[in-house]
Design goal:
- The chain has 445 residues and is mainly beta.
- 9% of the residues lie in helices and 47% in strands.
- It folds into two domains: 120 residues, no CATH class; 318 residues, Porin, CATH 2.40.160.
- The radius of gyration is 23 Å and the shape is globular.
- The two termini are 21 Å apart.
Length: 445
């Protein structure tokens, strides 16, 4: 990872030198439009950088300083965030569960809660990221940008790659948020890195195209590799189960990419509606018939925002599908997206599941923001597999609710406080809940 970042910095300096020595109209007029400068990020440069930065609620803000040519032929921005979080669980010890930590992952809530393990206090400094963005030929048809983000995951001190992609002429390719995710509608900001349980959210290896706006109308389509990564960059494996009886072999090669696409109409920046479709492709080996078979899944989602008055923004998302567990936040890693078709030995069928979110943000002042949200994720028809002795998770549905407040002390420093409540329901063991009160002090640069 250190080698990768060093190589990128060397390449960036090489580009800067090339830009410095290039001839431009400004040079021919006796100016020096390609002079390299170290400057505070202007509103114009901020808008250029925002066009190709991640859109998720936990992305690093645009850096406050950049290295650039005076005519913006070259822009390099290095930013990051250090965000220690302090808090405590009440009612369960979700913080201590594997794969959770400061992420409030409702599918990890222990059921039932154990005596002596119904609370936990923590101070966690392992929530930090650094990103590098390089943009060339800004404000021209050939504008191109590269973005890399590395960071920790709130569980240990290992640094992992979280994003790596390039953007050129409405195309974006690399490791990035899947096109199926509507990042602006999924949720208001949270201290919790995980966010609402029902959010349709994943990081994928993807090639995507997003159109420009045609009087408020836009469309997009992509090809996703059907292996997915959680928000912290760790591989969680394909969401296909292992079965007894050797009727199904799930090691068949996946030869067709997943295909997400959407159409959107925006009345204004925060008044918009989007309809998303997802074709999920899965191949497996039917051992009974000795054939390789194809079992498609699908997903549909309605999402968007409503801005009835200037300080208030409403977020909404409703997603339903079959076989889309790798895309739903709380179901990622659950091994029930496809299960055997009991009426046809050797065959598999996609499972029905859904995710729903509603949230609001109230911007009381330019520095002070209040947020609230509620979410549900649910899966149907997998009881026999969820309750099996070797099942990794007995999961029926989960609820998630959060309220928080953020205050920007300075452009570099933000304080926040948050309360979260979550409930996990199983098929045959009842349910359990956890509450969390936490606070953060986030430094961005």
């Amino acid at each position: 990872m250190r080698t990768t970042v060093t190589a990128l910095l060397i390449a960036a300096l090489g580009c800067a030198q090339g830009a410095q020595g290039a001839t431009s109209p400004a040079d021919s007029l006796g100016g020096d439009g390609n002079r390299i400068e170290f400057k505070r990020t202007s509103p114009e440069v901020k808008e250029i950088l925002k066009r190709s930065r991640p859109e998720d609620p936990h992305s690093v803000p645009v850096p406050n300083f950049v290295v650039k040519s005076s005519n913006n032929n070259f822009i390099m921005a290095i930013g990051g965030m250090i965000n220690p979080i302090m808090g405590g669980d009440i009612g369960n010890n979700l913080y201590k569960q594997s794969g959770a930590g400061i992420s409030f992952v409702t599918n990890q809530i222990p059921v039932p809660a154990k005596s002596g393990h119904k609370g936990d206090f923590y101070i966690n400094p392992l929530n930090a990221t650094v990103d590098l963005q390089i943009t060339g030929l800004a404000n021209t048809p050939n504008e191109i940008s590269g973005y890399v983000k590395i960071g920790t995951n709130g569980i240990n001190s290992n640094v992992v790659l979280q994003r790596a992609y390039i953007t050129y002429r409405h195309f974006q390719a690399g490791m990035q948020l899947t096109l199926a995710q509507d990042a602006y509608a999924c949720q208001p900001p949270t201290i919790d890195p995980e966010g609402p349980s029902g959010c349709l959210s994943a990081v994928a290896y993807e090639v995507a195209y997003k159109s420009k706006s045609y009087n408020g109308f836009r469309f997009a389509a992509a090809l996703d590799v059907p292996s997915f990564y959680s928000s912290n960059g760790y591989y969680r494996g394909r969401d296909y189960p292992k079965y007894d009886g050797k009727q199904v072999d799930i090691s068949a090669d996946q030869v067709i990419p997943d295909i997400p696409a959407w159409v959107e109409y925006s009345f204004s920046q925060w008044n918009r509606i989007r309809l998303t479709g997802l074709l999920r492709n899965f191949h497996y080996r039917d051992v009974v018939a000795g054939k390789t078979r194809y079992a498609p899944g699908y997903g549909v989602m309605l999402s968007g925002n409503i801005n009835p008055v200037k300080p208030l923004i409403v977020y909404y998302q409703l997603a339903y599908g079959k076989g889309i567990g790798a895309y739903l936040q709380d179901l990622a890693g659950q091994q029930f997206s496809y299960t055997p078709d009991d009426s046809r030995p050797g065959r598999m069928t996609p499972s029905a599941m859904m995710g729903a979110n509603i949230g609001i943000s109230y911007n009381a002042t330019s520095r002070l923001q209040f947020n609230a949200m509620f979410s549900e994720s649910r899966i149907w028809g997998v009881k026999d597999y969820a309750t099996a002795p070797d099942s990794e998770c007995n999961y029926k549905y989960a609820l998630y609710a959060a309220v928080n407040c953020f205050y920007n002390i300075t452009p570099y420093l933000q304080w926040g406080i948050e309360y979260i409540w979550g409930h996990k329901q199983t098929w045959d063991m009842g349910g359990a809940h956890d509450s969390r009160l936490q606070t953060q002090i986030a430094f961005t640069f």
